[in-house]
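Revision sheet: structure tokens.
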Amino acid sequence: MSVTVIEAPTSEDWKVLLSFLPENWKQLATDTGALKGLRKDKSPESLLRTLLIHLGCGHSLRETVVRARQAEIAELSDVALLKRLRKSQGWLYALCRALFQEHGITVSDTVHQMHAFDATVVSEPGKTGSQWRLHYSMALPSFGCKFFKLTPTKGKGTAETFKHFPVDPGDYILADRGYSTAKGIEYVAKAGGYVTVRVNTGALHFETGPGIPFHLLSAVESITHIGEVGEWQVNLKNAPGVLGRICVLRKTKEATQDALKSIDQNARRKKKKPRESTRRFASYVIVFTTFPPDRFSASDVLEWYRLRWQVELVFKRFKSLAQFGHLPKSDEQSAKAWLYGKLFVALLTEKIVRHARTFSPWGYATTSVQSLERLPIRSK
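Predicted:
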């Protein structure tokens, strides 16, 4: 997997980068207390630039302060930088929310306790650098971090599973197909939570009654029109008492082709031929949900999953950026600030990429300058 890295910017690059920040980014620094306690340089610009050397480039705290000192950005110790990172947690979170809003994803309040669960691997630099799997949950659509947990990447109990997360009664959880297991869904149900998960057709199996299999492929292929929604009530096999619904949406031709391309690439990498059923399932978005049908129609379920799908683009960028970095593990506040910082860099990167693809030739905001004297026109 390729890793996006924001290099330490030159003065010119930095001015361009600033043009992509939310308009009130400086005020947010003051409002959230990020600058509180600074004795010398109380510049939000210097603080953010120093934090981005650590968060965007993946440098250690010690290396970050050396680079900041050499660039004459800031004079502080690695311990002081860690404290400043902690105090910047609220600021980094506020910046994330602002950029999510610009991304077209609403951040209004909701009556539902909706959470997106995910995980990524963090590989600390160096020959002996540790590898960790970071399990985290984001509240939707406010994007606050509800929970995170670090585990090794190998060994029993380290894989992606709902069982890593505390679940409260009434929680509504969205997750990708990595969490598509009967035991994990049963864990959520027993805790009083509800789940919507992308179906891994090789891992989840369903019944219409005890011992009566539900033929998923036949059911979904009855949906023949793009945008048409299908819904079936099923029991989850190997999870006694878990009753839910299959909700299905047929993809566009372009989306289906993208899915088939991904299936073929994965098959070539594993040197295996994909099953015919896998290719046929590629034409559909299939989720299993235990969300109450009287509160969530099939279309509602798919719209909530669509929101998770939107932020998945950001999560993918976040995962890439988080792959290599010095994750503070000394306390929860530092780790949360680091997580928000990485998410902020991912969102900022997404915004820059969008502008680069949409606008030419520069793609960043311009500022007015004083008019130049009119130059004489030379005749040919």
